[in-house]
């Protein structure tokens, strides 16, 4: 028998992949080393290259043996990778970050030869000074660490020692023990002292070995939290990352994974503190989502945990800060539209030349028709987004409210179709509902795609903020248009009938019906803001989303004008 | 300055990870070898372990040099990995599949020593007989291939040669050239001959090197398709996979990636033909989704392309087969409810003892109250799912129809709340809308979770099939209940008032209002089926989804009965 399958070519999203090179050992069991690095890069959508410094035979119970890679091969690997992904590019190269794990003397030497050229190419280097594996095996000797300190660490972007490693590094460099950490203050001082000693740019000292209590002293009891301290030398600033202590045996390779998650996020262009937040969260999820532990010792974590969709979603706190910020504004809507990053865009949008041209009868009518067609596409999408809002609503009344809005949007669509459009011989069935007709333009498609993406990943508040510029902007644009409206008898490039159509359009968006919808929407947004305990990062995200949509609105009208 | 971030512990989905071991070379540039394997395993959510046979220094322009791993280390790696993830398990072990890529003589020997024990443990072995890299470098010599043929391939689950490799293997084994393939028939014969010669269980010969024309002859012009042929010896069956020829330079490591994608899907328990379909689709997406090529030679593909959510979505054709299948049924609804895998479950559901007990007045009233509470939770979720249906609807009228259904469900919710429940002193605010009250039971939660998952990943038709058992099943259950209804004066364990409530409940689901909704839903489903060109795999998926939901409905009532 012969069975035949014909595969379709299904389109998929295009991506531009940033690249990270990991220089580290291979962990045959897949939980640490370059294996953990590659899995972590994959989780964050970053392309990974490797320079394997040693092959280990190990499993979750320990390292059985290892073989070091020769200097010659390391040299060849570094040249092959760096030529093809960095040095030979004249424009922006794909390689953004180099991350190191287990290093041998051979690897340190070969890598250090590349440093001057790497500095020229502005690659960020993240060094995870691995000394001992989770299972207790020693992975580098003191001579290796000295080499590392003397040849590599100075000037690198970030090093990520845990507490024992930080102490060891201090000892190697300063030739004396650092006093034992008792409190958060001590811990911060250790981070700064170590940075000053090593001269790296930033240092993240991980506190997994010394849980703290609620008073920020090293914990003596069980109820404890983990603190990681980042010291940034250029700002002379500390950043404290507090998180819950996760009681889990799925922690093999957690150090490698944290450092490579940070490297991946840096390669994607994220700020250092955001990168660390996303990485700590990733480790937490990885350590608490395996239904069944793998292996008989300390097992690997789950590298397939989904990274947080946003920074704000993994952070507590700072509600008071937000309240203070918003208290200077009449409403959240006012805060958004007058925000420094939004204000000018908002004005450009609601006082758009397209609206001005309508109001002054100087808009060529075919551009208005094009706009109506685009708006038809947009409204269909806008209705669908409210379906997504309905599915994420916090209670059934809100779900119902979104369904009602869908009904209103459909009314608007049919109004377009039946009342306005039938006068201009546009056959919607012919034009849109079969493949031969007008397609949405780029501006419309970009806008719809953005809303759909937001709709799929955001919560109810996020979706409502993303649909807000359309609802409220049209009310403001209508008011603006009316305020500068020329008498319809003062005709520009349109006929008297066409001028009347323009008047109707302006009237629609200043009608009681629309003014009411605008007001209701603002009230609903305000209630939502009051019901959600926002942190500052969340406010930033909402502002950014609102701003993106405002830019898409401007582009929507630009496209019509520049037809 | 000190900034403090407090991280929350955000719950994430738990997973049980199947494991694949790859025995292959390392490609430092990250596009092929164990790097490609690990990235591919990650894309499919499978845990990867490694046994690195050689380290190569290579980039997209070629292999510069390589160093082989010693026999001793390979032995130790295999022992460490297999002990910890396979041999020492008494129950089901996590390691499911072993996949090989570039092999050295050392690796072949060490691996072959493990074969008897691996056979005992029923691990599937997939051998990708890598000989030459995409960039043209020879990766194994003839002696190595002979060893492979003599010691490894016999009895393995699958080998995946491309056309030149298939010919080379034939030559090695039979000592003579296989005639050149001119047609699909020749290609099928080659696959079968090679299987009989090598004695592996299944063989997939990849046709990337010999595109075919529309008449299934080797193409001489440009318009061509790719055919891969699977020969399954145990069934004496061929499976043909036809796909478009992708003109792309992003193909470094495509062979490794295909084999590891197949291995990953097998590890997840997928059938061989389904695994191959998903893998070919993955390669296609990977080869056509990089915005910017990586490296200066043939670049790696995009391993972060999202695998297809379903088999049916990547297949053309077989519409006639589906029409023939469905023509034996009055309606798609009839087809679903009488399908061999559904029929008994459907009867169990619509004639459920819970309904019987209501009809016969033998249901303890507290169980009925528990059911109403659970139903309240369920309906809120059911409304939200229709929001997702609205967002995926094929046109705005359907979007509107889903919004209308949300309105109807909300009416039903409020009816529950205000009419029925107020008589039993259940304070919904206290019970549900704050944290202290009754939570949804396991059956309700499982059902809601399933629907939400379906709602997020499925298209409109899929969602409508998933919500169908509830809508139509309650109509049938109501009719069933009425047909065996005892006179309310013949009381069982309930009071006369309570019996009246039971009567009202049965009346609701046999009312004109509900009968109408039931009928409209069936008509809508039928139209949808007629508007979609389904293939057989899609029909299978819809049946499976419908059946899953029927089982969840049964469990929903079981939980109430077994309170």
From TrEMBL, chains A, B:
Domain Thiaminase-2/PQQC: 339-561
GO molecular function: hydroxymethylpyrimidine kinase activity; phosphomethylpyrimidine kinase activity
Residue span(s) of domain Pyridoxamine kinase/Phosphomethylpyrimidine kinase: 27-302
Transmembrane intervals: none
SUPFAM superfamilies, alphabetized: Heme oxygenase-like, Ribokinase-like
Pfam families: Phos_pyr_kin (PF08543), TENA_THI-4 (PF03070)
Name this polypeptide is given: Phosphomethylpyrimidine kinase
GO CC entries: cytosol
Organism: Candida verbasci
Gene Ontology BP terms: thiamine biosynthetic process
UniProt xrefs under InterPro entries: Haem_Oase-like_multi-hlx (IPR016084), HMP/HMP-P_kinase_dom (IPR004399), PM/HMP-P_kinase-1 (IPR013749), Ribokinase-like (IPR029056), Thiaminase-2/PQQC (IPR004305)
PANTHER family named among the record's database cross-references: HYDROXYMETHYLPYRIMIDINE_PHOSPHOMETHYLPYRIMIDINE KINASE THI20-RELATED (PTHR20858:SF17), PHOSPHOMETHYLPYRIMIDINE KINASE (PTHR20858)
């Amino acid at each position: 028998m012969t069975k035949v399958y014909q595969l379709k070519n299904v389109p998929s999203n295009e991506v531009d992949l940033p690249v990270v090179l990991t220089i580290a050992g291979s962990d045959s069991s897949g939980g640490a080393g370059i294996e953990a690095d590659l899995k972590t890069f994959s989780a964050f959508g970053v392309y990974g290259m490797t320079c394997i410094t040693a092959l280990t035979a190990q499993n979750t119970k320990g390292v059985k043996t290892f073989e070091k890679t020769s200097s010659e091969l390391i040299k060849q690997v570094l040249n092959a990778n760096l030529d093809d992904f960095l040095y030979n590019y004249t424009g922006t190269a794909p390689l953004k970050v180099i991350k190191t794990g287990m290093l041998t003397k051979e690897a340190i030497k070969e890598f250090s030869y590349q440093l001057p050229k790497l500095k020229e190419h502005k690659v960020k280097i993240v060094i995870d000074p691995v000394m001992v594996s989770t299972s207790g095996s020693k992975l580098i000797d003191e001579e290796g660490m000295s080499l590392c300190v003397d040849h590599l660490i100075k000037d690198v972007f970030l090093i990520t020692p845990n507490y024992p490693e930080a102490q060891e590094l201090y000892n190697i460099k300063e030739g004396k023990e650092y006093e034992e950490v008792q409190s958060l203050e001590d811990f911060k001082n250790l981070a700064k002292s170590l940075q000053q000693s090593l001269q790296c740019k930033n240092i993240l000292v991980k506190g997994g070995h010394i849980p703290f209590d609620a008073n920020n002293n090293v914990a003596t009891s069980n109820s404890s939290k983990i603190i990681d301290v980042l010291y940034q030398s250029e700002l002379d600033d500390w950043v404290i990352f507090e998180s819950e202590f996760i009681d889990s045996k799925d922690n093999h390779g957690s150090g490698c994974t944290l450092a490579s998650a940070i490297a991946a996020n840096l390669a994607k262009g994220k700020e250092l503190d955001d990168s660390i937040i996303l990485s700590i969260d990733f480790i937490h999820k990885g350590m608490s989502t395996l239904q069944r532990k793998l292996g008989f010792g300390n097992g690997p974590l789950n590298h397939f945990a989904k990274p947080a969709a946003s920074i704000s979603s993994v952070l507590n706190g700072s509600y008071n800060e937000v309240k203070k910020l918003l208290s200077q504004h009449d409403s959240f809507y006012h805060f958004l539209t007058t925000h420094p990053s939004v204000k000018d865009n908002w004005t450009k949008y609601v006082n758009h030349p397209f609206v001005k041209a309508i109001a002054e009868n100087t808009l060529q009518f075919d551009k208005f028709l094009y706009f109506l067609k685009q708006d038809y596409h947009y409204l269909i999408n806008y209705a669908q987004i409210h379906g997504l809002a309905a599915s994420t609503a916090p209670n059934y009344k809100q779900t119902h409210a979104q369904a009602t809005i869908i009904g209103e949007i459909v009314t608007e669509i049919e109004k377009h179709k039946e009342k306005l459009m039938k006068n201009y011989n546009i056959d919607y069935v012919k034009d849109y509902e079969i493949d031969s007709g007008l397609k949405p333009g780029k501006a419309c498609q970009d806008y719809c795609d953005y809303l759909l993406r937001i709709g799929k990943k955001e919560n109810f508040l996020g979706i409502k903020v993303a649909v807000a510029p359309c609802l409220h902007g049209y009310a403001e644009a209508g008011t603006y248009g009316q305020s500068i409206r020329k008498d319809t008898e003062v005709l520009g490039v349109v006929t008297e009938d066409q001028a009347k159509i323009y008047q109707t359009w302006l009237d629609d968006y200043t009608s009681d019906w629309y003014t009411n919808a605008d007001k209701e929407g603002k009230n609903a947004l305000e209630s939502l803001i009051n019901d959600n305990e926002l942190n500052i990062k969340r406010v930033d995200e909402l502002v950014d989303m609102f701003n993106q949509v405002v830019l898409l609105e401007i582009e929507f009208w630009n496209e019509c004008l520049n037809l």
